[in-house]
Amino acid sequence: MKTLITEFLNYLSVERGLAKNTLMAYESDLLAYTEYLESKHGIKSPDGITREKITAYMHAQKKGNLTATSICRSLAAIRMFHRFLVRENFSKEDPTDLVETPKTWKRVPDVLSQAEIDAMIKATLGRDWQSVRDRAILELFYASGLRVTELVDLLVGSVNLEMGFVRCIGKGSKERIIPVGGKAKEAVLHYLETARIKILKGRKAEALFLSRLGKKMTRQSVWKTIKFYARKANIKKTIKPHTLRHTFATHLLEHGADLRSVQEMLGHSDISTTQIYTHVDKERLRTIHKQFHPRG
Asked: Is 284 a catalytic residue?
């Protein structure tokens, strides 16, 4: 089964162009799935897998306290895997055809208020290279709504400060252009002209945000940076890697941005993913409806 998983992952990488993190998530889900089938049912090939055994696996996941969202993600990987096996003649039937998807409840993402964002950015004030770099990270992160991976993958050439946009490669190797405002442009320019030069000490690097050793920052280091300034700003909310991304989208909608534009900036392929942010603005929508609907 592991050989078949490798074949499937190669297909997703080459034919579908999926990102490395997505491939790693699929691999993790499928290894857990096939290990369960072998340990609990002695199944070592696709032909012995039935709908009942897949359903039993999902129930085992639920008993293991996995969320409905995690189970659905796992099932999506399993479905794709079995469809691939049938298409490539590794298996005769797709046992996932009649497996029902667990209902999911989209949880409202944690977001920061404008005052909390301002407090975090203010907490970076300082003349040392690290403060200057971290201010640029927070300003650009909040201004663009990038994913953490997209932020660390930015190159110096990805940022056009004169035109005011960043170009990033998102999920599925899809490129998108995101406008950024004056505060972010100012912070990034200051970083490029001062802190980044000090970090490099005459060396060369393509990555925009660098560690003290002049290497590209990791997702973990950016994540630790965000948590550090949240604590420094005395923010009590739970801060997660996507918190600034969620806040970016929420604040745009609060100030009147349309959903399609926010979808494009976030790089969501499906607008239903973006709609989770509309929870923040129900009162504004009610006001607009009352104001403009003929029978409001």
From this structure: no
